[in-house]
Amino acid sequence: MLRRKKSPQFHCGKIVNNFTGNGYMSAQIAEDVWSNFVSFMENRCSRAEFENWIAPIEYVDGSDPVTLQVPNVFVQQYLLDNYKETLNNFFPKDKKGEPLISFLIKEQEKQKKKNSPPPKPKKKTDFGQELFFNTSYTFENFIEGPSNQFIKSAALGVASRPGKSYNPLFIHGGVGLGKTHLLHGIGHYVKKHHPKLKIQCITTEAFISDLVHHLRNKSVDKMKRYYRNLDILLVDDIQFLQNRLNFEEEFCNMFEALINQNNQIVVTSDKPPGQLQLSERMVARMEWGLVAHIGTPDLETRVAILQYKAEQTGLHLPSNIAFYIAEHIYNNVRQLEGAINRLGAYCRLMNLAVSKEVVDSILSEMFQAPVRSKISIDRILHSVASMFNVRESDLRGSSRTKEIAYPRQIAMYLAKELLGESLVKIASSFGGKTHSTLLHAWKKISAQLEKDDVLRRQVQMTRQNIEA
């Protein structure tokens, strides 16, 4: 547990310093910001990294600058070398871009009082490993959308009836889209509803480390007995098993043993099984059950995520600002969370309300620019056809019905915006239309975008799908 000392700024539980308009923090705000930083790092670091480098740091004082106590100079240096940018997102910085934080070096460890109660032991598995599930990663706070609704339902089905369906469940998708969240959500659900079941959640790297340890200690049989007696095994980032044949073989044997006993396995990866550099045997085993993809959240889902995260941190985020941020940050959920943390910290420290100007100032470097090199007319037509439920051939055709002509004009607008080609060449892709027809369509859609929020969101979603 992180230990904190009471600041001299506190007296009988009352705050002496208050937040000022000059950007200084009151003692309470400073301590809250430090708590937010610690919670943020706990969700982002590995457990070992957090316990070694973040947890030993003590909050001491909230005056300007904030004072932290570190056990030694190495912890201070590690914090500044590796997390300076994150610290700057939470705390003010000086003219040189350094976080306004003062450090006290702890000369020696204080002796604990003899009558102090012993610390509560961490919950461990029978194997002696700590069983840790992130408290923020539950099914209840997983924001659903078209890109992840199916996979969340599958994960909930596995958690409700382990070993009965979707076994193994293989979840794959890009970084920061919620794979680990679902894995830990399964763990929380099982612990609550099936407390007698033996469950383990482990990263692939941790599994490899365990195997190396037991090989050195000649206790591999003990490790095998432990894993093969589990009711549920959750494995994160299986891609790290690539090009490690000996470890892969042992994992595959364990995998088969659990499946043959109808014990549940859930695996996550950044790629589908067929794209991993693993043996055919391993790939075939992982494709036995359900292979499900978790995609990039759409605009409405990103807005819901932003609003939920803002509510959790006590930040008032107007709907129009949420849409503005979601339209410019769309690769993954972690970036959205980082944007809210950065925005919330700045607004609290500077006593500002959230506005478009503040967002542009604080988050502009996180905004993502479109990549045009891969965009083609075929891609544009495909995305528009999917959005408006029409056929691509109709967009290239001559039908003048509103159901076809309107999406065609949107496709022409996007083509002019995204393709660096002549109007004549672009227009010819729409069934031989003239450049004047294309220009008319572009002007019409441009004018409607100024006043039609629904159209603006539809075009934005289509554009992001094209640029993805």
UniProtKB/TrEMBL annotation:
InterPro entries in the cross-refs: AAA+_ATPase, Chromosome_initiator_DnaA, Chromosome_initiator_DnaA-like, Chromosome_initiator_DnaA_CS, DnaA_C, DnaA_dom, DnaA_N_dom, DnaA_N_sf
Location relative to the cell = Cytoplasm
Instruction: Provide the transmembrane region boundaries.
Output: none
Q: What keyword terms does UniProt attach to this protein?
A: ATP-binding, Cytoplasm, DNA replication, DNA-binding, Lipid-binding, Nucleotide-binding
Q: Report residues binding ATP.
A: G176, G178, K179, T180
Coarse class of the protein's main subcellular location: cytoplasm
Where does the record place the AAA+ ATPase domain?
165-292
Q: Where is the Chromosomal replication initiator DnaA C-terminal domain?
A: 376-445
| Region spans: Domain IV, binds dsDNA | 348-468
* A Pfam match: Bac_DnaA
Q: Which SUPFAM superfamilies match?
A: P-loop containing nucleoside triphosphate hydrolases, TrpR-like
Q: Locate the region Domain I, interacts with DnaA modulators.
A: 1-115
* NCBIfam families on file: DnaA
Subunit-structure text: Oligomerizes as a right-handed, spiral filament on DNA at oriC.
Family from the record: Belongs to the DnaA family.
**By its UniProt entry, which PANTHER family does this protein fall under?**
CHROMOSOMAL REPLICATION INITIATOR PROTEIN DNAA
Free-text function comment from the UniProt entry: Plays an essential role in the initiation and regulation of chromosomal replication. ATP-DnaA binds to the origin of replication (oriC) to initiate formation of the DNA replication initiation complex once per cell cycle. Binds the DnaA box (a 9 base pair repeat at the origin) and separates the double-stranded (ds)DNA. Forms a right-handed helical filament on oriC DNA; dsDNA binds to the exterior of the filament while single-stranded (ss)DNA is stabiized in the filament's interior.
Q: What is known of its domains?
A: Domain I is involved in oligomerization and binding regulators, domain II is flexibile and of varying length in different bacteria, domain III forms the AAA+ region, while domain IV binds dsDNA.
Q: What is this protein called?
A: Chromosomal replication initiator protein DnaA
The organism is Candidatus Neptunichlamydia vexilliferae
The upper taxonomy is:
Bacteria, Pseudomonadati, Chlamydiota, Chlamydiia, Parachlamydiales
Write the gene name: dnaA
